[in-house]
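Whether sequence alone determines local backbone shape is best considered at the level of individual chains. The sequence in question and its structure tokens are set out directly beneath this paragraph.

***
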Amino acid sequence: MHRRHTIASRRYLRGTIFSGFAALAVATAPALAAESAPAPANRDGEALGDIIVTGEKRPQNLQATPTAISVLSGADLASRHITSLQDLTDGSVPSLRIAPFYSRSSALIVNIRGVGVLFDVNQPARDQGVGIYVDGVYMGRAQGLGTALFDIENIEVLKGPQGTLFGRNTEGGAVNITTKKPSGEFHVNGTAGIGNYGSYKTEAHIDLPAFHNISLKLDGVIAHRDAVVKNPLDGAYGFNFYDKRGVHVEALWRAAPGLTVDAAFDHSYDASTPLYQQLLAPGSNIQAALGTVQPSRADTANVGVPQQPSIGKTNGYRLTLEWQLATVLTLKSISAYRDLRQSQYDNGSAAITMSNNGGRFSDMTFSRYSLAQVHQKQASQEIDLIGEIPGLKYVAGAMWYREKVQDNAQTLPTNKFLDASGSSYTILPYDLDAQPLDRASHVTTTSIGLFGQATYTPSMLDERLHLTGGLRWTRDEKKGELFIVNGKTPTVNGVTAPRVLDAAWSRVDPMVTLAYDATDDVHLYAKWSTGYKSGGANSRSLPYLAFDPESLSVFEIGAKTEFWDRRGRLNLAAYAGAYKDIQVDFQANYEQIINGQRVYTTRTTIETINAPGTGRVRGVEADLTLAPVRGLTLSGSYAYTDPHIPPTVNPFPQGSSGTIITTPVQIYSVYTPKHAISGAVDYEHRLGDATTRFHIDANYDSGFYAAFVNPLYYGPGDARNVMQPKGEKSFIVNARLAIADIAMRDSGATLTAALWVRNLFNEQHAFYRALTVSSGTSGFFNDPRMFGGEINVRF
């Protein structure tokens, strides 16, 4: 039996860590964690404040940046009680969708405008369609994205292809995360809080005084939540638990006039258990007595299963050099190395494995424990030259990226029924170390790129016209091996040997933008850009066939406006584009050649092809902010998103007969609601020596597909079709009330006490629903109501 920590030891470990942070909080009480600056920009009852973004490699006003960008500040994250990127699943940015891959919070799916990943983001030789960047460093894997966020300045969501200025795989867009830099002044900020489901969170951010022109900043965070769904098996973890810890150290050295050296190290530990997959409706199979349908959000699983946390550990090193060669010319270098180790233990799907077509369950095994290990190392180097001359602003640079990834996966049943009706069961003994691997692979990716972008502002028309052109050349190379599939060395065309991937692709992506300042408060633009996601191979495949890159070409028009003496701000964007060579997954048989005859088995693998034909993306986005009276800020965002993937024939054999179905299959763009809205009210009022701050936000989406193909499809309108269900609509409300800026005697410290709640009305919806003909409809529900309180102090 695989060894696990006992509940007592886990509680002791958590208690020790929490007590240590609590002691730090008491010892540094005058300086303990203040929250970020308050969310409302309308403090003085006048104009909205400027929002500064860096999406074009230089600080500039959001309103003067001719591309669609949504921004969440550190204050916004505090108001919404966001601990990690996974908390953005509620739709805080309507056109951005973040979700766990299947039931696993250990890897995140990130889509923008319906572009990203259709299926498995876990695979080493497959890349994301949205680039995630932290302080300019590309995060190469979907694993590790759910770690706790450190002291965040801004999260910028850049929509549409961003290939000209961002390093890799940004056909759908980029999420640009910027942390707060050392200030060179002494500050100690911290947060300590508790909530329901045994949750607690502690943060400490320590800024030290500059010494010999070196400023040092230390960040620490711990966030914990007990399981949301109980596991009836004694000693096993429940479902939807997390335990996140991390430290971040950054030193900023002003080495000489105009020269800064910024060195940072971060370490994160992220333990989580999977979501609980519920049976929402039965299929054609007969259910065991314990295989009960649970159509609403469950708080206890219907059977107990072995379950332990999936654990991710990441270490990152970054060195950023910035040298101001002249007043308007800067050379910037970003060097980085990261190491990621992620385990996966997923036994959350027992409820959908308790059926068969005969109705007798004696000695039938069930509950599929899915196990995997991923180890990734990445190194990257980027050089930027950022400058301007009269009438021209420009950026030019080069990028190099290399990663080595190895993974494996195995599955085993952990439970067995003891009677014919399926009303009792036992836990099977198992030894994970002795369990054969179902698949294993490794791959090395090398990517290089050259890029440039320039904005020309002619002297005519009072310098209100701006023409921007950009170009990026990229070359991606992948070399790897798939050496185990379905528990054995692959056999293809009579040859038993590891399957080899050795492929490279080159690509040129242009961008052209025409912007016009109609007035000082109205900025119009039209933009055409392209982007691509590199090719690769599917590690669930048998022949390990390489697939080609997919690409996106988008035309976008937009308006960024301010009105009412800058008390109102309205930004609009509309876009349409061609989506080509889309990477689509299909099931295929495990094939072998025996005595010259091709033999099919009922075992399946997953193959990836590039869909023929041209798909599309199109949509409309709007962001509105109003400051009607002193202290009150109203904001709202809307996204209409309508991608289309062309119907595609599954070219691979199916079933024991090896049949190939020639009817094109309808393919859904996953994790993409057609309509999504987010709105917020922020209010602050000075009351004596304190400030009352209130925040409430509401987030709606019209539901989306989580499975991208139909179980049975014979053509449009065919009565035999079995169609995938869409996830349910959602409406999530979050709120926070704080009494802030309370002076603590003569210490110079200020205190903030806050109450928060996520999913205020305890709304429930199955955001993920998937159907198979035999097993039925299953799904994952959103989190129930979460609430708590926290104390913040800053000095």
